[in-house]
Every structure is written in C-alpha cells, then in structure tokens.
Amino acid sequence: MSDQQQPPQMSDEELRAAYERQLEEQLRTLRVEDVIVQTIVTLVNLGGRRAGLAPGTEDERDPEQLRLSIEGARALLGLIESELGPDATAIKEALSQLQLAYAQLAGGAGGQGGGEPQGGTGGAQQPPQGGQGPAQSSGRLWVPGQ
C-alpha cells in the first residue's frame, strides 16, 4: 500500500479543534424545541423500561422512576405541544400507556393484587370505599402528581 492512499494523520490538537468546530456548528443550528422533544422521547423510552414493558426489562421495574419519567415528560410536553402537530398524538398515546402501567405497578405494589389499581402511592388519596374517586367521577385518567 502506498503512502498516497492513506489519509494524513491529525494531531490531538487538530482533532480537538475540528471537534470543537463541529460542536459549535451543531449548537448554532440546534433549537431548544429539538432538545425538549429528544428529552421527552428519552423519558418515554426510559419509562417504558422502568415499567417493564419491553421484553427482557421486567427486572428493571421501578414505579418511582416510572412516575418521574411520566411527570417529566408531561411537564415538557406542555411547553412544546402546540409545535409538535400530529407527533403530539403519538407522544400522548405513549404517555397514556406509561400511566396505565404505573397504575398497575402502583396498585400491585400496595398489596392490592391483580384487581383494579387504586391509582396512587404513598400519600395519595384513595377513593372512599363504595364510592367513586375524583378520577372516576370526572371520567379522566388519573395522572401521577396531578
């Protein structure tokens, strides 16, 4: 192999400078909305793992981490929902699935077995026996932290 076929080697300093130029260009064109969307997607994906929804992630179930991922994604979604257009529907559907998984995990963790989850953890209010709680009477899905 001749020397002409190999690209010239860059020094560490030249590599660092090239990397910094590339990073600077990415930051120049990057929008905050893009970072928020990526963060929401990351939270939804991580929430799915903490819910044990993906095959092989059953041992990663963590209701508190799942709750945080749901609340974080919902808070961020409110900042950019109007700019997402049709993509907002897919994100909302994924969050709904996580909320249902959370209700099941939180209900099972409280010793309520396989029945309907009561929709809370720790200090959350439980609906009165024999009556409907606020989520049931309003027809809205219970959301952690709200």
Explain what this protein looks like in three dimensions:
This protein has five helices and no strands. By secondary structure, it is mostly helical. It has a domain at 34-109. The longest helix is centred in the C-terminal third of the chain and has 23 residues, at 87-109. It starts with 11 loop residues before the first helix and ends in an 8-residue tail after the last helix.
What key phrases describe this protein's structure?
single chain; mainly alpha; elongated
Which class of secondary structure composition applies to the elements? mainly alpha
The percent of residues in helical segments reads: 55-70%
What is the first-to-last residue Cα distance? Answer: 67 Å
- Overall shape: it is elongated
Q: State the major sheet.
A: none
- The secondary-structure element order is HHHHH
Contiguous uncertain segments of 5+ residues = 110-138
Find the count of extended strands (DSSP E, 2+ residues): 0
Q: Please tell me how large the radius of gyration is.
A: 23 Å
What topology does this entry show?
Layout: H1 12-29, H2 32-50, H3 63-84, H4 87-109, H5 134-138
Concise description?
By secondary structure, this protein is mainly α. The protein has helices spanning 12-29, 32-50, 63-84, 87-109, 134-138.
